[in-house]
What does this fold into?
Amino acid sequence: MMKDSFSSFHPIINFGYFAAMLLFGMFLMHPVLQVIALLCALTYSILLNGRKAVKFNLLYMLPLFVVMAVMNPVFNHAGVTILFYLKNGNPMTLESILYGVSAACMFVTILLWFSCYNAVMTSDKFIYLFGKIMPALSLIFSMVLRFVPRYKEQIRRISLAQRSIGRDITQGNMLVRARNGLTILSIMTTWALENAIETADSMKSRGYGLPGRTSFSLYRFDSRDRLVGGALLALIAIMVIGEVSGRNAMRFFPSIKMAMTTPFSIIVFAAYLLLGMLPVIIHVVEALKWKSISSKT
Amino acid sequence: MEIYQLQDVSFTFPLSDQAALSHIDLTITSGEFVTICGRSGCGKSTLLRQLKSILTPHGKREGTIHYAGKPIEEANQRTQAAEIGFVLQNPDNGIVTDKVWHELAFGLESLGYDSGSIRLRVAEMASFFGIQHWFHKNVAELSGGQKQLLNLASIMAMQPSVLILDEPTSQLDPIAAADFIETLRKINQELGTTIILTEHRLEEVLPVSDRLIVMDDGAIIADDTPRRSGQTLFQMKHPMLAAMPSPMQICAGVEAGASAVPVTVKEGRQWLDAFLQGIPALHRESWSQPVVNAVAGVGKRQKPVIQFKEVWFKYSKDASDTVKDLSFEVEEGQFYCIVGGNGAGKTTTLSLTGGLVQPYRGKILIDGKNIAKMSAKELFTNQLAILPQNPQHLFVKKTVEQDLYEMLSGSPLSFVEKTEKVEDAVQFLELEPLLARHPYDLSGGEQQRAALAKVLLLEPRILLLDEPTKGLDGFFKDRLAHYLKKLNAEGVTIMMVSHDIEFCAKHGEVCAMFFDGSIITEKATKAFFAGNSFYTTAANRMARHVWREGVTIEDVIALCKQSS
It folds into this structure.
């Protein structure tokens, strides 16, 4: 699969995009906007994760959607348009059915955005962003990411060594296994503390703790980032204006009331679609560009 | 210009009445490559840590240390961090962050450089060390050799004027160790950085060193060019001589007062040729022939205790085979060594023998029984034991003594019987002075001994060893060999995988060459090394054009003496 081009942008652009999409996805209940968001999230998740995403969406997201949409009207009986009465005498309303569908749509959209977020915002991007705010915290993150695989490997080795003298958690009865497990854990702690002293020496020896520590990163905010960042801000601004002017308003209870569709709401919808599809558009444009370049040479 | 000047430096650890360093006088000039050697515990590391005061342990110091003309206490933390680089023994412990590029930048971040300068320095270092191919990798994906190189590069990025290394290659395999020493040579030659290192394996490092300092009991006993330091040791008949490169030892053994002592194999060959000049070649051939015949035959066959029958193994379904079509037998009472390069599958073979992993095709028989059908209890009591590569992985208690008793905790023996068994093991491995200490506080060789004692409490009849000589100095290696031979004489079968050719040649009975997942050749030790031309001991490489069967240092010395 081709590498996603949006991931290669500056982390602040990646993060800003996802923050915006998650917030809009959570608060905008207008059906047109919801459908747009769901569509965009679905497309991008398939673009990022390929066949795996299709399988995941069909297997987990679709059932989740159905269950959530059905659960709401069963428990929520608000709304004025009563369709029929349930056996226990509670009313089933049109509003609660539609609200259920809307909430399920929102929930699935958010989950999809998060799956995209996970693929794009790798640990070092996250560390970098937080390093800007709190440099010490970002170093801790980085050290934790170093230690976790190291400890896992060490536990594996100790467990293997213990197995070779018949004292691993896979050997003996339950009680013996539990005791062996605890022994491994305790020796692991001793080992970690012992080795941390040397790591501390290594840090001290390279001047850690001196005042005026800087934070280095491989990322550079270039003209491409500025361009996309500008577009991002402009689209977000349109969305915010739309919200303030009431173009995105939606009410479910007690009766359904949707904002009138005016020419400006069309612009807002278009802006949202463009915003949601931004990574996909970038990806397609770059792919086309690459094709035309490679066909010329 | 003098970079370091030590005058009458002594150092005593708190609560200790014996000085770890006594009356050290030392001057190191800028640009020198200084190697310090000595037994474990002779004060090498303590001396190195005096040279960077932020790493100096607590204790009482007398005398003065000048760095670049000023007392070292006057150099503040910033100066010391930037100018004095310190590489630790364990490559894993030196690395702080999770990414290679971040690790390279770590020191520069601490010193407060801006992004532009860090970018440049990091790029320079990555190119100099050839790191650019794994620049974006996670540290966890690197090999041990790469990790140590990364430690070095991240320190070199700060452009220090002196580089101090504490046994940097002890945890590396020979190929990675040679690469590392070569990189140090390059730094010294091309950048003029002063290098001070301690080392056990001197074969590679001596040819590139300007000076060899030998320490014993906290004092310097020789300090000169490697050649002359070696000569001083001969004159003193000092035990540290056993740590010198083979050509040097052979020369010392043959001509006590030799004027030009050889350091490398090449010089050793030249020395040998000069020594043998005038002795007719025919005379030498005539008696070397029978030796070859004598070593060719393997003794009468014993009952096989470890049998591999066409064994195949891979770590996961889609991985490539680690062990391929492996068949071999180890007979009862043998000392069987498997040698071979890194990643060839030697350690995997050991894990297979110990039943830690299962083959997907083929059979492994221990004492005639299929290992797949044996329970852990059956396999590990009075039958088979493995000494892991890192002895630390075996220790689970606060003191060595408790750790030994822990080994018998599951057995139905009475307290008196247990005490007896532990005492036997303690006596056998001479552990009395260490019993009350924490296992992690012992030196590498002592840990090895304590771990061996632990394993021996299982009273194994087959002992498997994984790289037992890793990180040990020559003295501890000899001690280990002594114990192993004693066990061997009591009828314990020993199977060992190792990179340490010299050790296998000296002590092994049968050697097998492992390559690409299988054993290529298997012969009695002498015949094995006489048959190889590159993968053999330094003594053999030096003398094989005259005597193919001269494998160990002792062999070559004896042959020299007989022919003169």
Notes: Chain A touches chain B through 51 residues (CB under 8 Å).
